[in-house]
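Hi U.,

Before I forget, here's the chain from the pilot set. I'm dumping it here mostly so it's searchable later in email.
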Amino acid sequence: MEYRLVDGLFEVLATLEPVADHPTEASEPFYQWVIRRLKNLMRAQGIRITVYGTENLPTTGGAIIAINHTGYYDFIFGGIAGFLRGKRMVRFMAKKEVFDIPIIGHAMRGMKHVSVDRSNGGSSVDEAVERIEDGQLVGIFPESTISRSFELSDFKNGAARIAQQADAPLIPMVIWGSQRLWTKGRKKQLGRNHFPIIIRLGAPIDTSGEPDAVVDKLKASMQELLDESRAEYSRRFGPFEDGEDWLPASMGGSAPTLEEAREIDAKIKAEKKAKRARKLGRDAQTKE
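Structure:
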């Protein structure tokens, strides 16, 4: 395959046709300022990013993009395809606790991301639908949290419900390599590491049928994209030693299996719940 480089950073197929900038999103001052800073960060780290399938994104109008989740940089990498498609901006759905963090929360609101209250998921779905109907691209992580196994974990059906209610394209995307930089359960690698990243988008999913059936189709499509990306990653940038902690167990790595990852997450969730209960108990005693 022949590639060309965009902005000295993003590798795309040489046959990919350039498109005109989006009439409004390309000129959003704050989001574009953030993107410039993030591009400088990625250049400083020497990250090599290959992107396929941007033609599956609409140049105008709304859509929901479903993305796998293996690392904290996914919020950065998940927006690259939109940027390459006429400098479109992706509004990510993120838990409301992120919006409560000083400075970060202000930035999230400035980029018009969508706050998700897990105790009231319906309101988040409604807002995402409104954004899409307003012509925006909304990004969602169907697993809702980082997959420690680096496999596709259990999907929630929010992406399907949003696509159906908004009557909008549901576009699958996978990112592979993000977990090498910064993820749960392993040391950060944020220096000049030259790690390669592959981003691959597929054709929109058929959204007819019950939401859970749509989720099955979405997950099958994303698994196919993930398998293709992993194979290319190993072929172009490998071979990699067995036992690498960023590789899933199914590829000879030492990452936990899906079942082991579920057990780890359940244990951590229970510990956090117990900690909150103890804190509430102490607060109640203090008030007495």
